[in-house]
Amino acid sequence: MTEEDAVLPSADLGLLPGIAAEDHGGVTLCADTPWISACRSPETVGDFAAVVADYADRLWGAGVRPGAVVALVKSNHFDIQAIQCAVARIGALPALLSVTMEPADLVYCLKELQRPYLLIDTDGAAVLRPWQGQWGEVAARVLALTPEAAVAGAVELGESAPHRITRRSGSDRTLITHSSGTTGKPKLLVHTVDSLYAHVAPQIGVVQSLGSAGISAKCLSFVHVRMSSGLLTVLNTGLPFLGITSPDLPSVREALLRYRPEALEAQPNMFLRWEALARETPSPFSTVERYISSFDAIHPRTLRTLLEASDRPDPTFIQAYGQTETGPVTILMTTRSDLHERGRLNSRDVGTAFPGMEIRVVDDAGSPLPAGAPGHIEVRTPARAESMIGRAPLPGRETWWPMGDIGALGADGHVELLDRHVDQVLGVPSTLRAEDVLLDELPELAEVVIVSVEGTVTAVAATTDGKPVDEGRWQQARDAAELPRNTRVEYRPWDDFPLTGTMKVRRHRLLPHGAPG
């Protein structure tokens, strides 16, 4: 697919559900759990469009009008995407905030939005309850999605009134999402119709080239821009869709065995935690033809485990590299045959650029580096967000954008991702590669993260059985990962790892405690 061949969505977030209902209204579009705040639990594209229209009527009845900002703070469910479409449909601007965000950061984001309408469910109300006395300062009005969420100061989103549709195009703002906050406070990013469409165009191209007809399931943070672009892709192509609400193993097992998806997308650390499912009989992943992952490079052990769990002839793992600010930038497809033919893959290879995307690697002074030389990754893409709320204006999209990552660009155009710039550890060429090797060498590791503590390289690790790794085997794995011999290891429960809403480890908050192993 060339840049000229790219297919754009046929309409914006607010209008596309209705258009899709006319084109393929009977196609499956559902979640694995009930839609508590909706008028019904959709099973098809037509149902989804009806739910969007009902939400729009209720928002209009609550006084929301074109130009207003509506901040959504609720439990993770696919209904977030329907509410987002309803807000856009009436000309307001949806701001999707993760309920898993630290409460202080959540209030910070609300203040940055300058008194938006605040839409909450019971989970959102619980998280924000300590700041209930400040609601009048941070929100123009607090709307409760259900009666249970209508705590003091909140008005239930119940009364309906026929809404007026607002059409957006081009440079109009259409969505606010936020970065993961892995390295600090989340950044609020404004996406225009054009920039969001540029997120979607390569995804539509991939779907059309693969000719998929089975259900595509996603277990993601539904407030992430990745899910918004995914929804536009699904509605535009008529791809059957399932939203999986929880990454917990029992929920995922039940959803996969019930719906038998052909494609499955999740965040990398979700896939890591699902390795145990892949060893079950029957395998919940037996029908999966394509796995999809973005946000971070996938651990090779996880990639192998999931591909081997499929009963399809030659399943594929599709990886994308990008960030909230840019959308997907590169793509890499790996099949089970590739694993058998090539053996151990380069775990840091995140593929080549999508059509219309440009990538370079530069030194500290901003000068381009030769092929294979590590440096700072920069990109140019029409998908880059239009602005950041509360921050200085962003440079034009013709300007090279720093990804904040260290990597190398091969002569073949493949990008090798080595480290997040702020996460580099002195004496370790690539903490990410070292972690991949440790996970390969030590199957009992559930997670491991390399950090620097007072100048000492430290591996913070979780094991599947909660027991420390045998010292001799640890030393062998440490040497294979090319870590310093004085590297310390500290064990902690997997659930103690501080995570973002997209399950990235907050490395800067991963401070070891207790005695090293």
Automatic annotation (TrEMBL):
Ranges for domain AMP-dependent synthetase/ligase: 45-383
Domain of life of the organism encoding this protein: Bacteria
InterPro entries: AMP-binding_CS (IPR020845), AMP-dep_synth/lig_dom (IPR000873), ANL_N_sf (IPR042099), ATP-dep_AMP-bd_enzyme (IPR050237)
Listed SUPFAM superfamilies: Acetyl-CoA synthetase-like
Family annotation (Gene3D superfamilies): N-terminal domain of ligase-like
PANTHER family xrefs: LONG-CHAIN-FATTY-ACID--COA LIGASE, NONRIBOSOMAL PEPTIDE SYNTHASE PES1 (EUROFUNG)-RELATED
Protein name, as recorded: AMP-binding protein
Species this protein is from: Streptomyces typhae
